[in-house]
Design brief:
- The structure is a single chain.
- This protein is an alpha+beta fold.
- Helices cover 34% and strands 25% of the residues.
- β11 and β12 form a beta hairpin.
- α2 packs across α3.
- About 2% of the residues have low confidence.
Length: 204
């Protein structure tokens, strides 16, 4: 199966939001004609990426990576007064890691994070990410399903994509760019936002 390009991913995102959306409308959003969008959707159905009228997306066939929860066992230096330095060093690495979406620090000071990484390179990616950080070991758990409903004092609210203003659900992405945190509904929007941000910086 050929790799999905950004246009395929954007079409999937639009169909996932509204499976009854006309191909002509999708074409206007992605810069293609209605028939060209229809051809792409047919190919996605034939390759098994789209299953059924409601657009059941098999995300293992996308480039988004495999969702994992990682528990990090930080090394404790017996000669140190506090283990905050290894923790801060690990958190700093995770802030700069694109696959990482959420980082958690427990009341006991343990480090846990959720990320989407390439399934065949999870261990290799972890080794590279924490190179030079005092880590004894880590435990990787494959996440089967994620449900994320953000709320404040029990009142649900919706995040909007910084690029297209669509609602960001549990499959969205979060990125820290120049110290600011932005939320995106898909990887395509994140890429377009990064590219435009970089062009604006270069022109400044």
């Amino acid at each position: 199966m050929r790799d999905l390009d950004e246009t395929d991913v954007e079409i999937l995102s639009l169909l996932a939001t509204d499976a009854r959306r006309p191909f002509s409308e999708i074409g206007e959003r992605v810069g293609l004609s209605g028939p060209a969008v229809s051809d792409r959707v047919t190919r996605l159905e034939e390759t098994g990426v789209i299953e059924g009228f409601t657009v059941d997306v098999d995300r293992t066939k996308l480039r988004g990576g495999v969702p994992v929860m990682v528990d990090v066992d930080l090394a404790v230096d017996a000669g140190a007064d506090s283990d905050s330095e290894p923790l801060e060093a690990a958190r700093e690495r995770l802030r700069d890691a694109n696959p990482v979406e959420h980082v958690f620090i427990t009341a006991e000071g343990d480090l846990r994070f959720y990320a989407r990484v390439e399934g065949r390179t999870v261990r290799e990616w972890l080794s590279g990410t924490f190179e030079g950080v005092p880590v004894d070991d880590w435990t990787v758990t494959l996440v089967d399903e994620v449900e994320w409903t953000p709320s404040i004092d029990g009142v649900e609210f919706a995040l909007t994509c910084a690029e297209c203003s669509n609602t960001v659900d549990s499959e969205g992405e979060t990125a820290r760019i120049d110290g600011e945190v932005y939320h995106f509904c898909c990887s395509s929007c994140l890429s377009r936002f990064r590219d435009r941000y970089q062009r604006l910086e270069e022109g400044a």
